[in-house]
Write a structure and sequence with these properties.
The chain is α+β, with helices and mostly antiparallel strands and 335 residues long. 40% of the residues lie in helices and 21% in strands.
């Protein structure tokens, strides 16, 4: 084996003398120093020699390895220096600026919303996006064949399994496992069977809130929504409520913010009304409390929802929801 070591050293030195460029240098490395190169094969053969010869042969192999690595590094440095001198590598050129990642505008908006609500004493809860019909509808006072189901444009996986149409199922799951008081928000992705256009998407984001305790009133709900509007868009933003209907709240309302862009004067965004529709809210229906075992004679509560995408559109002055999901770097690099 000692003869093989000496012959390989001679062969390596001879091949190194003929290596004049990058390709020849890489060929040299592959032939001798790679994981399947000739040096690795010799080291592998070391296990077959007798214990008496192994120490001396191991020492010789390590010396050969150091000789090859030093020679290779010497040749590599020499070739790099030649390239610099020939002008092919200009060290005076500015380096490439590393790409700096940043938050997607929807993520940034959701983080801001979470910060506002946690500062108001809310806990953040999460739940599955694939839900049972019970949690998505029935426990929320929407039994089978109820006309309100038509409002949801649901995407069914099976007869009793759906892609959630809102994050309200999280509220049911929390109330099933926690006694009042409850004060939570449930942010997350939701799905509807919608045709994409400037204001609709089959996939979007919501934040829903729930407060349950003794003596909770509609006035508390109005105060929370107003506080959120002021923290997100400024102290001059007013909120108005309009009567509406939702199966899981009674009374129910839709609420609007004073137009973020014209401050109530009237513009294209608010269709010259001075107001921008945000979402719905109301006092939790006693039937919902019954589904989770809460005493509706003792406890009252309010629930509200809002679209993260809608808030982001208002915050950044964007008039088409689809641009959030197109991954156009010209758009995303602005944030």
């Amino acid at each position: 084996m000692i003869t093989k070591i000496e012959n390989m050293k001679k062969s390596f030195d001879r091949d190194m003398q003929s290596a004049k460029g990058s390709k020849e240098l890489e060929d040299l490395r592959q032939k001798y120093l790679s994981r399947k190169g000739q040096l690795a094969i010799l080291f592998d053969d070391l296990k077959n020699v007798s214990p008496r010869e192994k120490p001396q042969l191991g020492k010789s192999l390590n010396a050969l390895k150091n000789h090859m690595q030093e020679g290779f590094n010497r040749l590599l440095n020499s070739l790099q220096l030649d390239q610099q001198r020939s002008g092919r590598l200009d060290l005076s050129l500015p380096g490439r600026k590393p790409f700096s990642g940043r938050k997607h505008p929807l993520t940034a908006t959701l983080d801001d919303m979470k910060m506002v609500f946690t500062s108001l004493g809310f806990w953040i809860e999460d739940g599955p996006e694939i839900e049972t019909d019970y949690y998505n509808f029935e426990a929320l006072n929407i039994p089978k064949n109820h006309p309100a189901r038509d409002m949801q444009d649901t995407l069914y996986i099976s007869e009793d399994v759906v892609l959630r149409t809102h994050t309200s199922p999280v509220q049911i799951r929390v109330m099933e496992n926690r006694k009042p008081p409850v004060r939570i928000i449930a942010p997350g992705r939701v799905y509807r069977r919608d045709t994409p256009d400037a204001s609709h998407s089959p996939f979007f984001h919501q934040v829903e809130g729930l407060v349950v305790d003794e003596g909770v009133s509609f006035g508390d709900l109005k105060g929370i929504i107003s506080a959120f509007a002021h923290k997100m868009f400024g102290e001059d933003i007013r909120v108005r409520f309009r009567p509406s209907f939702f199966p899981f709240t009674e009374p129910s309302a839709e609420y609007d913010f004073l137009c973020i862009f014209c401050r109530g004067k009237g513009c294209r965004v608010c269709k010259n009304t001075g107001w921008v529709e945000i979402s719905g809210a109301g006092m939790v229906d006693p039937n919902v409390f019954a589904a989770v075992g809460y005493d509706s004679e003792k406890y009252t509560g309010y629930a509200f929802g809002m679209g993260v995408d809608r808030i982001a559109m208002l915050k950044f002055g964007i008039n088409d929801i689809r641009i959030f999901f197109e991954n156009d770097m010209r758009f995303l690099n602005q944030f």
